[in-house]
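Supplementary Methods, section 5.1.

A reviewer requested that the exact input to the structure prediction be made available. We therefore reproduce it here, unchanged from the version used in the analyses.
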Amino acid sequence: MKRTRIGLHTLVILLLLIFSATVAAQKPEKKQVSGNPANLPAAIWRNAESVGSLNLLYGAGGQEHAPDANGRYTFVKEIMTGGSPKFDVRDAQGVLWRVKMGHESHSEVAATRLLWAAGYFVDEDYYLPQIKVTRLPKLHRGGEFVASGGTVRNVRLERRPKEVKKVGSWSWFDNPFLEKREFNGLCVMMALLNNWDLKASNNTIKTTGGERRYMITDLGATFGKTGNSFSRSRSVLKDYANSKFVDKMTPEFVDFVMESRPFAAAAINVSYYKKRTKMENITEHIPRADAKWLGLKLAQLSEEQIRDCFRAGGFTPEEVEGYTTVVRKRIAELGAL
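The structure derived from this sequence is encoded token-by-token as follows.
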């Protein structure tokens, strides 16, 4: 009897050890996926099933994530980085939004729509002519957009969900997608939008959907003219319409116009001068096949969808028509390569 009791006791212990070992073996794998973003697959583009059916009035976030134009927003904090005045708010549902004021609120919203239509990852951005913000203090920047009673005019709201995490930034000259068609297409998109602010700090890696997504998260310096600090512009239809798109071509490659070389006097700051000048290389030596591939993607958009990009950005009806004409012309140039 004694021998039998010892055998049963040993068997129970063995079973417990086996169970514990099985559970322990499973835990590290779970931690590896959720705890270390470097183990997630990198992505810069997704294949939209039907470009022609995309709702570009609401963009990546859709109508279901759109901010309430008549809602009350509570001030959280002012953001002092970047060229445009910004601050964070929470809506009545507890959703965090980053509010950007000024001219970039128009151009950025429209740019995210076109970039998303081409298959690239973007923030969920929306434009509202005004919002009401409670507990709004006197801002260090952007006071000219604030009226009495906490009314803030001419704003872009970027939805910032808790499940999306920023894990770093990325460079145009050092990333996992160099030489790939999708990356070359993104470079062409920068030329199409006339985005002259191509510094690495505007490029963000975010974890969401089980991926590390490489995104451009500041697209405000678009739809104007590229150039140095004296000549460049944003959200200026005349400048955008008069800008040259394709610079030169060979049988295999295309150079698109991107003027970012600083004014000569800026050469005293050698690092700044080199960085800005190097940006011009981003849209050069693009394989014609890759540029044409992007053009054929964008050609699936209807004229009305392109109009919706600019309507979403709060442009005037005249500006909507003007920008739509220029974008369609540039898409046609890509398709003809």
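The helical segments are 2-35, 104-117, 181-193, 237-241, 270-278, 288-298, 303-312, 317-335. These observations are discussed further in the main text.
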